[in-house]
Amino acid sequence: MTPQPTRRGLLTLGAGAAAGAALTACGSSSGARTAAEDTATVPFHGTHQAGIATDQQDRMVFTAYDLTVSGSVAQNRAALVTLLRTWTAAAAAMTTGSRVPGESDLAAAPPADTGEAVGLPAASLTLTIGFGPSLFDDRFGLAGRRPAALADLPHLAPENLDPARSNGDLSIQACADDPQVAFHAVRNLARLGRDSAVTRWVQLGFGRASSTGSGQVTPRNLLGFKDGTRNILSNDSDTMNRYVWVGAETDQPWMRGGSYQVVRRISQKIEAWDRDFLGDQENVFGRAKYTGAPLTGTKEFDRPDFAAVRGGVPVIPHGAHIRLAARENNGGVQILRRGYNYTDGILPNGELDAGLFFVAFQQDPRTQFVALQRKLGAGDKLNEYIQHVASGLFACPPGPARGEYWGARLFA
Ligand code: HEM
Q: Rounded to the nearest whole angstrom, what is the distance from the C-alpha of residue 217 to the centroid of ligand 1?
């Protein structure tokens, strides 16, 4: 690929520079670097796709696409491969802070890059692609390549799903520390894909609602609680290999090094929540609101003691969210959470439309997300205040090697 000018006019920030350390902070053109000019980049190529184990950024734009092809299987497949090749080249460029490849300076033609990120840094942009179950129908001849783990999600309480903003043939998760950088990325991918893909739904996320790196401070969700305290840490490679990355156990070798992503738009009844008294809010989660400590401890990272009883009653109540979700009570099962807070105007009843765009990565949703959600759906005290209103399941293939396109091994 021809190196493109970087958005800051820095040719030093080419593909080679991005291939180095897990996270590279490059200086500004003046040599001095300020927080506003932070040009951190996350490598696009590698064993795993970026945007899963890499430190969670502050903003997200998640997009799902439907493919519009209507030719023969061979034609459809060729169109899909062309789309994936084009997207890969553009994604690789944008994650280094470069413009979309192509001519953007001809006065007589629309620019290859839409331009709203010119002058903005890379802002740790990551782009993560996913393949929905519907991609594996007869249109592309991929039915035999569908992983067993990509089984359609069953009905899961408490859900009332809007099909118009659920599912999709393809998904792109764009995360960055600057919302305009994330939006620019999905806008340009949508534009490049217009011959064969239409955007099905979009979800914006502001404010991460999880930590994925050991250096990250635990953020808070919109219910005011620290979220992500006992998440899998991405540097815990044993747990990542056991519960997040697809390995030798898969029936579809093209997915090795990938992961399955479940997304759920979970609406929160925040007005009702705000009227609940503090003690009850803390019993709902089994944690103290301000410190984040389990009700059996004093500090955020104290290990919850699910056996502790006071006055004959469990200190962490039976229906507390963490009691139901904790690995100790689920045969060791864990998931990597990477969700975002969202807000989206007001609901027809006049209440704020806000909640958690829950995102989880795992090796097998059937034994991880689905098993956990069945349990939460049946007994979580939090259910009084939430409803799952949209859903998606995607197979995120392994990271592309240099010169390879996203998901190439699916077609090998
Ligand atoms: C709006 C919905 C949700 C909210 C507000 C929420 C919030 C929280 C909070 C505050 C914690 C405690 C801190 C922590 O360890 O991260 C937590 C823990 C956890 N949540 Fe959720 N959560 C929600 C939905 C879900 C769903 C849908 C799942 C999975 C099906 C889930 C799985 C977990 C797990 C596995 C833990 C860690 C439990 C532990 O090991 O102690 N959560 N959640």
A: 16
Does the CB atom of residue 373 touch ligand 1 within 6 A?
Answer: yes
Question: Per the confidence metrics, is the pTM higher than 0.90?
Answer: yes
Residue written as token pair 């994936």: 84
How far is ligand 1, taken at its centre, from the CA of residue 395, in Å?
A: 22
- The whole-angstrom separation of Cα 335 and Cα 359 is 10
Rounded Cα gap, residues 305 and 309, in angstroms: 9
Share of the chain above pLDDT 70, in %: 91
* Rounded Cα gap, residues 207 and 326, in angstroms: 24
322 lines ligand 1 (CB under 6 A): yes
Instruction: Collect contacts of 133-138 with beta carbons under 8 A, ≥24 apart.
Output: 133/167, 133/393, 134/167, 134/168, 134/169, 135/67, 135/169, 135/170, 138/73
267 lines ligand 1 (CB under 6 A): no
Task: Give pLDDT, residue 7.
Answer: 60
The whole-chain average pLDDT of the chain stands at 91
The mean pLDDT value for 2-31 works out to 37
Query: Among 101, 124, 64, 122, which residue's Cα sits nearest to residue 188?
Result: 101
| Pocket flag, ligand 1, residue 389 (CB < 6 Å) | no
201 lines ligand 1 (CB under 6 A): no
The DSSP line for 313-332 is: EESS-TT-HHHHHSGGGTTT
Of all atoms in ligand 1, which is nearest to the CA of residue 230? 15
- Residue 397: cis peptide before it, omega within 30 degrees of 0: no
Axis-axis angle for helices 73-94, 179-192 (nearest 10) = 150
pLDDT tens-digit series, residues 134-171: 999 989 999 999 999 999 999 999 999 999 999 999 99
Q: Is 340 helix (H, G, I), strand (E, B) or coil?
A: strand
Does 270 score more than 70 pLDDT? yes
Quick check: 228 and 359 in contact, CB under 8 A? no
- The reply to whether ligand 1 has any atom less than 6 angstroms from the CB of 342 is no
Residues 284 and 287: their CA atoms lie apart, in Å, by 8
- The residue whose C-alpha atom lies closest to atom 31 belonging to ligand 1 is 325
Question: pLDDT band at 213, cuts 50/70/90?
Answer: confident
CA 111 to CA 100: how far, in whole Å? 9
